[in-house]
Amino acid sequence: MIVLRALFALPLYGAMLLYMITPEWMSWARAELLAWLRWCGVILATAMLPLLLWLFRSIGRNISETVLTKSGQSLVTYGPYRWVRHPLYSVGAFGFFALGLVAANWFITGMMLLVIFMLPFLVEKEEAQLLAKFGASYREYMSRTGRFLPKLKSV
């Protein structure tokens, strides 16, 4: 998992950092995007900020830097976690994708799409840890919530 994170996250974060420091260093990956599409990225990124605040307030000290659970960790099922099991990944993915649009940079946007593609594999390991720690409670939570987006109720 560490190798996969390094393969995907380091180039993404590095490219974003280079773009923020000196955009010319990332000019080789410039994408010609229409202004309205870049503004959609601005709006989407801005919309992610209050969601991130709500998310971090909800999870509090239960956040983990890895897929492993902590000893004093509790199962959070309120705030955005009421509907989605992994809202941090969802909000982060939308936010980084939005920043790729704002930057009009195909490398940043492409790396983010690769990260989004890899998320289910990462989350599978994390959910195995959460099932081991919380058992039936987490299984019930899984049955009523979506993994990355709210679960649609069947009619």
Compact overview of the structure:
This protein has about 160 residues and is an all-alpha fold. Helix 1 crosses helix 4, helix 2 runs antiparallel to helix 3 and helix 4 packs across helix 5.
Order of helices and strands: HHHHH
The biggest sheet amounts to: none
Give the distance, in angstroms, between the N- and C-terminal Cα atoms: 38 Å
**Roughly how many Å is the radius of gyration?**
17 Å
Provide the CATH top-level class.
Mainly Alpha
Mean pLDDT: 88
> How would the global form be characterised?
elongated
Strand content: under 5%
Q: What is the name of the CATH architecture? A: Up-down Bundle
Please give the number of β-strands: 0
Number of helices: 5
What does this protein look like?
- The chain has 155 residues and is mainly alpha-helical.
- The protein has one domain (2-144): Four Helix Bundle (Hemerythrin (Met), subunit A) (Up-down Bundle), CATH 1.20.120.1630.
- The protein is 65% helix and 0% strand.
- The chain contains five helices and no strands.
- The protein has helices at 2-21, 35-59, 87-103, 106-134, 136-144.
- The chain is elongated, with a radius of gyration of 17 Å.
